[in-house]
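P.,

For your records, the input lines for the assembly:
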Amino acid sequence: MNPKEYKYTQEHEWICTESRNKGKVGLADYAQLQLGDIVFLDLPAPGTQVEHGKKMGEVESVKAVSDIFAPVSGRVLEINQTVVDEPGLVNKDPYGAGWLVRLELSKPAELDALMDSEKYDKFVVQLSEEESE
Amino acid sequence: MMELLKKTPLNKVHRELRARMMDFAGWELPVWYTSILEEHRTVRSGAGIFDVSDMGRVWITGKKAGGFLDRLFSRRPTRLEIGSAQLCLLCLEDGGILDDLLVYRVETDRFLVVWNAANIEQKLGWLKRWAGSDPDIVIQDESAHTLMLAVQGSAVSRLQSLKGLSHLPRFGVAQTRIDDVEVLAARTGYTGEDGFEIISDATNGVRLWESFMRQGVKPCGLGARDSLRLEAGMLLYGQDMDRNTNPFEAGLEWLVELNAGDFIGKSALLEIKRQGIRRKLIGFQMTGQGIARTGYMIVRGGQEVGKVTSGGYSPTLDVSIGFGYVPIELATIGTDIEIMIRSKPVAAQVVSRQFYKRGARNEPKGI
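Structure tokens returned:
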């Protein structure tokens, strides 16, 4: 379910690189399921420098608010205006139309520290098990 | 040690529906089944069903039951016709609010009190203290043996199971059968829509629930229960009022009969009214971006002037709304205020607390 070619953080952001130093960032399916209906997104303006592991925005659902962390360091090239106008896209299509920002990576080596889909799948299964205990 | 959560007779049904569960006043209840937004909109345009078995259900019976309740409640239950219900407050001697509740008059000397899940023991203790050992006042908490469903929405009176109750006026109460289950039904609710609250024996709960589901009624959780009542301008005890607030500042003066007989708290309330209130519960709507959540600070001119007592997103208006207490001089519709959203002041405006009015919007005209 979590795309194979994407990389993931422990905070449930994903990044999908289109070249060595450019990629789209979004929220993983697990995050949108936890949050429920997403109604508001606060994303960094194009040109903003974001830093790996640091807060770069906020997501609000009907029930909760949560920070969005930058999976890697870099500069914001563009934001997904469609998802800002219709935040529910994150729920409907978290890995596609619900992407949040496009980044230019300043330290592509940071990607190596992220989880691949296989590792992330296990991580999520473990979290779900802890939850149901 | 973690306290074990109480479970309603429908707990298994909620789990089978894969609801997301949460702790609400010591009860394990669904927050949502599929989506708060979907559930909210279904109630505004169709019909939804809520498990509200967390609400306490206490029978007050006996020859002196009516007179006893007249002394305790802010509106006299003995003025009720048989087969009707009313909202009222349970006040402390100092005028603070111990709860808001519904009292049904089922027979001349048989009253049912439906109150919030919080502080049940304390409230029962309060009632019993004033009843003393009078054999003509019998107080019986039937919550554990019964369950309560709220079937709410603009389309409820068209449901097969409720057609027989469509004559019942708002706040009317009927002892009847729904799908061959004996129930006590009242045309009441907490959503701002038409609807019924239905009490039955706990063992029949699943049967009733499933019958409504077969008729296309959508299960709805606490998330929608909260956003619906907030839009409708209805207060939540423990957040928007409590023992430290009085009915005047909470905008609940209409629930208080000051020119009738005596009741506990009345003399304090008369004095509060004479002195005038210094703060008031307002409704506000965000004009800037972001969602005002319960507990956020209300500011004006860089100064804290209050706290958001209930806040959230309004699916109908697609904007954030809320309630909060502010000094009386700011409690005028149109006043600009700000809500601190994670250390940033965001613009908001004082508006009427009734954000959503049934029939005023979202309903096709001419039908």
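Two observations worth noting. The helical segments of chain B are 11-16, 36-45, 65-72, 120-131, 205-214, 222-231, 266-275. Confidence is low (pLDDT under 50) at residues 362-367 of chain B.

Regards
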